[in-house]
Amino acid sequence: MGASPSYQRAVCPDELLAKQVQALQPGEALMDGNLLVAAHLAEARNVAELIQDGFSNTREVAEPVLALREVWHLFLHNGAEIRRDFALLTHGRQSQPVGDAHTIVYAPRTSLLKRVSRFGRLF
Description:
single chain; alpha+beta; two-stranded antiparallel ribbon; elongated
């Protein structure tokens, strides 16, 4: 029997991991080595028993996951995760132009301006 699974880690998901989690069948667990990444449970009240007894049906992730194992990992990976989230949220969207000559946008490719108020102001 291998090492017992690790818990209480934050995992930074990507599109591939999300698809793997969505494909889990009831009773299956998704592992990255000994790290429990996700599980599909039929009933939430069985969590403690499943963790204690182990999962009988497990799959390994297709690619290693980014797990925040220490508090400082949050700061180490924060910039890359923000850029990845920005790319996901803005995919296929186009920013509104800034019409004010006195407003400077320093990184237009990393900014998304959207008309959100009925008065036409940009935020």
